[in-house]
Amino acid sequence: MEIAIYIYNGVTMLDAIGPYEILRNLKGVNIKFVAKEKGEIIADSQMVHLNAKYDIEEVNKADVLLIPGSSISFIKEMKDEKVLQWIRDIDATTQKTVSVCTGSLILAATGLLKDKKATSHWKPINLLAELGALPTRERIVEEGKYITSAGVSSGIDMALLLAKQLKGEKDAKAAQLVVEYDPKPMFNSGNYLSAEPEIIQYAKKQLERNARIIIP
Amino acid sequence: MEIAIYIYNGVTMLDAIGPYEILRNLKGVNIKFVAKEKGEIIADSQMVHLNAKYDIEEVNKADVLLIPGSSISFIKEMKDEKVLQWIRDIDATTQKTVSVCTGSLILAATGLLKDKKATSHWKPINLLAELGALPTRERIVEEGKYITSAGVSSGIDMALLLAKQLKGEKDAKAAQLVVEYDPKPMFNSGNYLSAEPEIIQYAKKQLERNARIIIP
Question: Does A1 touch chain B if contact means CB atoms closer than 8 Å?
Answer without folding.
Answer: no
